Amino acid sequence: MTTPRIRAKDLMSEAELAEVRTRSGWKGPALIAHAWALILGSVAMVALWPNPLTFIVAVGIIGSRQLGLAILMHDGAHGSLANGARLNLWLSQWLCAYPVFSETRAYRAYHLQHHARTQQDDDPDLVLSAPFPITPVSYRRKFWRDISGQTGFSQRKAQLLNALGEGAMPWRQRLARFWGKLGPQLVVNLVLLAGFSAAGVWWAYPLLWLLPLLTWMMVITRIRNIAEHAVVPDNDDPLRNTRTTRANVLERLFIAPYYVNYHLEHHLMMYVPCYNLRRVHEILSKGPHAGRMEVQPSYPAVLRLATARSNDQDRPGRRISGERSARAGAGLTESQVTSGF
């Protein structure tokens, strides 16, 4: 079933629409540069002042910027990262998607189905929101799987097996399939390893690139998924089947980079570049639909909603198929298998 929609011209004036739809030639690339500057700056911080505190802070910052790269890849999938289709795809692939073992085109094909069928029974991302609310104990188990690397390892293993293919296959065909699925991602990661090694900090690749990718990025990816669509008030109302979550400075640094918290605004106007979503929120908050918008004050507030089920309650969440339910328990979706995110 296709999700009901609200026309953009019913949300704001023509002048406001023109303002928020305008794409900058430099803001998207600047956000990419910002992400990599924070990543490399965090590595330098640990190299200069090696101690447990700087290491933990660096893992948190780098993991959030890895999610940030995936978010910017997402903007690229919507054609909003840069002016010009070729530049948009190149930036999205080589500087955002490939470093975190993702792929823009595979993600785009999957993700547009989510926009067309948000919170409907055939929404490919329903597996991420349907199980909620859950108990606090259940969430703590999920958090442990994420922070300990179990979720990340499961995703990378599934991605590797998918790239290798199943059954009998000539080795040339298998190699071609593997290269098509993971070749550029491996090349970019080898370049990262070579760069760290040339700088005399080879250890930064396993400890400050792979470790955040498998741990903190998994924690905040789950939190982001919960915040966007879990326990929303109305699955059929486009103003209430998706959520915007207000984020303070620390939340933006460690959990919700690059305007990802403005998810309701993104669903209402999915071709607006991410750096204009805050302006969309400001306009809508003063408009006639402000009272209907699903907005929460913080990520802790959303987690309280998502973990509001007591141990002796029957779960009121929606039913999903056994295969999709198992995938949800592993924190794994088709998009994560095929594109790493």
UniProtKB/TrEMBL annotation:
Q: Where are the transmembrane segments?
A: 31-49, 55-73
Biased composition of type Basic and acidic residues is found at: 311-326
- Single biological process term from Gene Ontology: lipid biosynthetic process
Q: Which residues form the Fatty acid desaturase domain?
A: 49-286
**Under the GO molecular function aspect, what terms does this record hold?**
oxidoreductase activity, acting on paired donors, with oxidation of a pair of donors resulting in the reduction of molecular oxygen to two molecules of water
Query: What keyword terms does UniProt attach to this protein?
Result: Membrane, Transmembrane, Transmembrane helix
Q: Which GO terms describe its cellular component?
A: membrane
What's the protein here called?
Fatty acid desaturase
